[in-house]
Amino acid sequence: MKSPKLWSLQGKSILVVDDFPGMRSMMRGMLSAYGADDITDTSNGEEAIKRMHDKSFDIVLCDYNLGEGKDGQQVLEEAKEDNLLPYSSIFIMTTAENSMEMVMGAAEYQPDDYLSKPFTKQVLQTRLKRLLARKSSLRKIARAMQRKDYSHALSLCEKQLALQPGNRFELLRLKGELSIKAQRFDAAAAAFAEVMAERELPWAKLGYGEALYHRKRYEEAKTTFKELIKASPNYVFAHDWLARVYEKLEEPEMAQEILTEATEKSPKAVLRQRALAEISHQNEDLDSAEEAYRRVMRLGKNSCYKSPADYASLSRVYLQKGNNEEAMKTLTLMKKEFHRGKSGDRLHAIILEIMLYRDMAREDEARKGITEAMTLFRDNPGGLNTLLAMDLAGACYGLGLKEEGDEIVRHIVRNNHEDQDILDGVQGMMEDCGIGDSAADLIAATRDEVITLNNRGVEMATNGALQDSIKLFAQAADGMPENLAINLNAAQSLIMFMQRYGAAPEFLEQTQSYLMRVQSLNKPSQKQDKLQIAYRKLVTSLAKA
Question: Class of 453-544 per CATH?
Answer without folding.
Answer: mainly alpha
